Amino acid sequence: MASPAKKISSVIGGILIPLLVTCLATLLVKYKPWGVPDVLRDEYEAKVQKINERNSLINHWEKKAKPDIVVSSTYDVGVCTSGKPAEYQFTFRNKGEVALEVSSVRTTNNADIRITPPVIPSGEEGQIHVAWESIDQPGQFKFSAFFACNDPLQETFTIDFKGRNRAKILMPRQVSIPTTDSGTFGQSSLAITSELWEDITILSVESELELFEWNARQATSLPPGCTSGIDLMLQAGAFDYGKYESEFLVTAKGNTGEIIESKIKLTGKVHQPIGFLGPELHMTDGLDLGTLTSEKEHQFHVNCRVNGDHDREIAILEIEPAELTAKLKKQTRSGNYRLSIIVPKGCPMIVFNTNKQGFVKVGDPNDVNFSNWLPIHGVVVPPTQ
Fold first, then answer.
1. If pLDDT is split at 50, 70 and 90, which confidence band does 128 have?
2. Residue 323: which residues within 8 A CB-CB, separation 6 or more?
3. Residue 60 lies inside a defined structural domain of this protein
4. What ranges in the chain are assigned the alpha helix state H?
5. Which residues contact 368 (CB under 8 A, 6 or more apart)?
6. Per-residue pLDDT reduced to its tens digit, 331-350
7. Residue 170 DSSP label
8. Residue 109 falls inside a structural domain
9. Domain of 193, in residue numbers
């Protein structure tokens, strides 16, 4: 039979040995960086390795004489002419203690690179001249050039270039017409300019809108960099109420005889024939009457405005719930009315909310299209006992 001392030693051993194994295992575990998912682990570790290698390289050359190039990574070459030769020149500097040698490797647009002088002494500047054939297309462009040098901390580097080619025709993509009444014209204007043509002629402006007219005249002033311009005046509208969207086609001719067609988006809005105004009105929900008791009459007033023909006969066409009543009173100002919504005394219990929406319809009794709806919602309950 084992002695008490041996039993105690066995118990202690049974506790200490697993604990010691756990501690040793803990020391051997390499914990993953917090916040980096497993799918990005390889990418993360590659970046860390690259940073470590870069730091080691910097430490190695920290106190050693070396060339040190100072150059921007991006340049804006400005405005160029489509399809014509273009060039750009910039300087760079060697702030190191050893002469700097830079060479061109390649470019993404077959540009010609000339570096002068080929060797840049310590503290001196060099120049890089870039020449290329501009693409025959107006608008933004970009290309990159790749270089090599004897700077041990920057043996290769890339410079990105961006610019814009001059356009034969410049015009907005969209034009908006101010809000109008049904069947009436709204007016807007736009500038059509050129950075290459000495003269512009507008041959036609075509639209599918029933209400559309245009007039063109020579621009009295031009934006910087433009060689000619036209001020195009537009008059447009629609018969249907609400927002509308269309396109119109501009056909322009330059002094070279070249003709260019461009489509422009046109947007506008036609007033509803009847508008409702009031501080208590919500843009989409209309008028909230709240919860009312039928022990007395309740009245709510809203301004009602006719957009367009003020000589029309305007009346209450319909009201829901039918237990409510409404009155329309003409105001001094032409086309303006006062709309009164009445909850009569003794009205039975009714609920007109999102489940059963109430409304008042106002318009011309002789023209069903010349009308509008005012949403109303609320609850009427019997008086409390």
1. very high
2. 344, 347, 348, 350, 380
3. no
4. 4-28, 41-61
5. none
6. 999 999 999 999 999 999 99
7. B
8. yes
9. 174-270
